[in-house]
Amino acid sequence: MKKEFNNIAIVVKPNLTNSKEFAEEIKNELRKIKLEAKIINIKKLDDELKPGIFDLIIAIGGDGTILAISRNIDKRTPILGILIGGRGILSEIIKEEISQAFELLKKKEYNLEEHIRIKISTENNEFPPALNEAYIVREGYNVTPTYNITTKDGLKLNQRMDGIMISTPTGSTGHSYTLGSPVIAEDLEAMVITPVCPISLLRPIVLSAGKIEIRSNKPSVIAVDGQEVFKAKENTVIRIDKHEKTIMFLRFSNNKFKQLSKLGFR
User: Fold this and answer.
1) Is the pTM here over 0.85, yes or no?
2) Which of these, 27, 26, 77, lies nearest to 56 by C-alpha position?
3) In whole angstroms, what is the distance from residue 141 CA to residue 87 CA?
4) Per-position b or e across 7-39, b if 16+ CB within 10 A of its CB
5) Are 73 and 26 in contact (CB under 8 A)?
6) Is the Cβ–Cβ distance between 159 and 200 less than 8 Å?
7) Which long-range contacts (CB under 8 A, 24 or more apart) does 69-75 make?
8) How is 65-80 classified by DSSP, letter by letter?
9) What is the pLDDT of residues 53-80, one digit of tens each?
């Protein structure tokens, strides 16, 4: 049975042109199908977007908005992305499709699509989960580090390179894609290991989602979804694993490769 949406949040970035007016427009469109919503400033996510309060999150903006939201909700709360500007790889609809989409919502003609996330930790710290990728890169630029990589599947690598990226299928069309990684169907439980500027040519590696350990002989920077940045000392073991909680997207189609159309492939 399709779930009822009684508590809806509309997350908006106030610095986007006409975003506040657009949020009010969405709120009015929801009222037409007898649904109420609360508008939340993205800068107040930590205070207002508590897990378990809302049963649908409508994200106004682009991928950055959705990535920020994904760190503040649990797997039971689906996200519906409405694009304003940019490509919006993670968004489901554009502004002109709102009325039609909300009619489908009213008729419960939608799908809920689960996406895995990445858990990142060291011996002393656990970092925010990543929906797209964990990017581990050298802190300094005078020496190329050596990265030691081991996986649960028995893969062992020692490579000199600038850094390494571990991405989910969701993130395979993000930063990882620009580094040459393949496009992965969004509903798969897989990870992509993408070397960044290796001294010896090493192609991206796709493997089943699970434990990966990475250690660099030089200090590193860890970027989570390109939004939160942390540091790790040399020889720190950085652990990557599938997060126990997935993220849910509300979709109006079953196309598992719709991100390709956002990249211009039709």
Assistant:
1) yes
2) 77
3) 32
4) ebbbbbbeebeebeebbeebbebbeeeebebeb
5) no
6) yes
7) 69/11, 69/42, 69/45, 70/117, 70/129, 70/131, 70/225, 70/247, 71/128, 71/129, 71/131, 71/225, 72/45, 72/46, 73/49, 73/247, 74/245, 75/114, 75/245, 75/246, 75/247, 75/248
8) HHHHHHTSS-TTS-EE
9) 888 999 998 898 899 999 878 667 899 9
Q: How far apart are CA 213 and CA 206, in angstroms?
A: 15
Q: What is the pLDDT of residue 260?
A: 76
Does 219 lie in the same domain as 191? yes
Computed over every residue of the chain, the mean pLDDT equals 90
Q: What is the largest CA-CA distance in the chain?
A: 61
Contact 84, 16 (CB under 8 A): yes
Cα separation values, 162 from 146, 216, 227, Å: 8, 10, 20
Domain that holds residue 224: 118-242
177-220 pLDDT tens trace: 999 999 999 889 999 999 999 999 899 999 999 999 999 999 99
Rg of the chain, C-alpha, whole Å? 19
Catalytic entry in 46, 47, 55, 63: 63
55 catalytic? Reply is no
Q: Are strands 190-198 and 205-208 parallel, antiparallel or unpaired?
A: antiparallel
Q: Does residue 32 share a domain with residue 61?
A: yes
pLDDT at 264 over 80: no
Separation of alpha carbons 103 and 86, rounded Å: 25
Strands 205-208 and 118-121: unpaired
Question: Can you say how many angstroms the Cα of residue 172 is from the centroid of all Cα atoms in its chain?
Answer: 10
159: domain CATH number is 2.60.200.30
**Position 205 in a domain:** yes
